[in-house]
Amino acid sequence: MFKKILIANRGEIACRVAATARRLGIKTVAVYSEADANAKHVAVCDEAVNIGPAAAKESYLCGDKLIAVALATGAEAIHPGYGFLSENAEFADACAEVGLAFIGPPASAMRAMGSKSAAKQLMEKANVPLVPGYHGDNQDAGFLQEQADRIGYPVLLKASAGGGGKGMRVIESSEAFKDALASCKREAISSFGDDKVLAEKYLLRPRHIEIQVFADTHGNCIYLFERDCSVQRRHQKVLEEAPAPGMSDERRKAMGEAAVAAAKAVGYVGAGTVEFIANQDGSFYFMEMNTRLQVEHPVTEMITGTDLVEWQIRVAAGEALPKQQSELTINGHAIEARIYAENPEKGFLPSIGTLRHLETPAAVNFELGGVPGHPSAIRIDSGVRQGDAISPFYDPMIAKLIVWGADRKQALARMAQALAQYQIVGLATNIAFLKRLVEGDAFATADLDTGLIERNHEALFPPARSVPVAAIALAAVSLIEEEKDQSAAQSGANKGDPWGQALGWRMNFHYARKLAFSDEHGKQYAPMLTYLPHGWHFEIKGLEVDLSLFRQDGVDLSIKLGETSVHGTVRRDGDAFHVFTGGGHFVLDYNDPMAHAGESEAEGGRLTAPMPGKVVAVLAEKGAQVKKGDALVIMEAMKMEHTISAPHDGVVEEILYAVGDQVADGAPLLAFKTAA
């Protein structure tokens, strides 16, 4: 067994690997970029070394730097996690050349599976079922379009060296092929340094089912059952679960054996995932093999009672697999939700900012049906803490929330409850969206396919609703109590002196005060509070009730609203009051008439960058007349392309940035004049 390993990654996966290493008594070395100097993964490892600037290509993607650190610190092996260099065959070879164990598959297996085209040719020889398509080397645009026309639309274009949903486009018609191909190749070269693509028939209502495989150097190769990863947005997974709903024992065995055949065909060693696209009728086709640990590996661990990172380390150290196929069984059901810093209502646009408030659901501690290795039925894998920042340099994942249940029904209920308890202030997240998704009919009834989100768009993106009265009352109480504390602190007054505190006390009458709040959609709320000796009288929209605070613990409040007890958490962020109550998150902006006196309106007529990023294409010229929705500029941020479109019919007056320029969040990209 190794005594010390270097973790060549960051964030939650670096923390995840470190946790297993610590349990095994293995010392760990963290590496970090300048942007990650105070990151959680730096704190949880035994040593940490700076490897360069924030940009991944100057730090986490520099294999020579990582190897130098490993040798200097006495590490015997390198765990690459996922992403970055985890599937880089040259890096694996470089490790071997200096005597470092690479905790992953052989470089030959990565090369074989790293090209989707070559992998599919290998799978065809191994009799693994394939989707109709073109996987060859001819990358001429006209030839590729001919192949797409032959296959029949819709067609899926994929970066041959890709993964993680990047460099993928669904094309509905021959007329749309040229632009989609150009965009796909731009994203592919940016993300993987290779713009080669393949084309496949895009199956209607397919499911995405993957098989976890594991092999050692002693000739053993097994599968640890399946995960259903059908719920996706922009071809990236949102929810994953194991086992796959509706999976028969016969089909599971057939898919598992096909996955093992795929692994054996390339001499695989270590943890890997064979991904299949499956029709509703039960037929399935090989899609690709990920030669690394998957993001969603925890759901497999939860139902099998295994630690896949431990298995990775043991196999890399030359040990045999801890279990054989006959010893593996499925126990219960597990679901994983990816908590992202993104705004689902704005096309899942990534968000950046500081986690000014972070409260997670508590773990439920017990052994899962007697299966060892699981301390809880609620597990959170995260690489951030309260006060940490989500930057534009890396993937915007905040955490993975994983739950286990004796069956799918219990796991669903536990996931909904856990999401209701997850609180984040400081940036946009997908938590509310995930809760709607988990509680929605389609997912609850396992009506699954990769188009589930689009198919249920209306239910998952309902019209904005009014903020509940209880949330408004909590915000009002929080504001008033905060003012009382501030006035007392500023005046230094005795707590018994009503003149020196903002208690609302008046000599001959009760003080009535009208507050002004607005929600995220601009809707106004104007509650009237009349100060009473032991609370307030609360009025809003014809409702009149007494209101009192009976318990306060930091930002947690318990109030009495009429005859109803209400509990919640209120966190103030500038003028915004974030209210968490009843399983919901409501944001109310306090409109203080004295706070913004003299401010002028921002300059209009300029389209701005939604986040920091790089301009990769300028599609309009100065003086061009454009229609609403026309694409004007394409930016790249967080490894994804984002199109800036014309908000109205109008004229482009000035282009302010060129291709290749880096732009800041909110920077004007071009001057735009709306048509009269």
Structure description:
- With 676 residues, the protein is of the alpha+beta class.
- The chain has five domains: 100 residues, Rossmann fold, CATH 3.40.50.20; 70 residues, ATP-grasp fold, A domain (Dna Ligase, domain 1), CATH 3.30.1490; 252 residues, ATP-grasp fold, B domain (D-amino Acid Aminotransferase, Chain A, domain 1); 122 residues, Glycoprotein, Type 4 Pilin, CATH 3.30.700; 69 residues, RNA polymerase II/Efflux pump adaptor protein, barrel-sandwich hybrid domain (OB fold (Dihydrolipoamide Acetyltransferase, E2P), Beta Barrel).
- 26% of the residues lie in helices and 31% in strands.
- The chain is built from 17 helices and 43 strands.
- The chain has a ten-stranded antiparallel beta sheet, covered by helices on one side.
- Helix 2 links the parallel strand 2 and strand 3.
- The N and C termini lie far apart (73 Å).
- About 3% of the residues have low confidence.
- Its cofactor is biotin.
- Keywords: ATP-binding, Biotin, Ligase, Nucleotide-binding, Transit peptide.
- One of its GO terms (molecular function) is ATP binding.
- It comes from Pseudoduganella guangdongensis.
- InterPro entries: ATP-grasp, BC-like_N, Biotin_BS, Biotin_carboxylase_complex, Biotin_carboxylation_dom, Biotin_COase_C, Biotin_lipoyl, CPAse_ATP-bd.
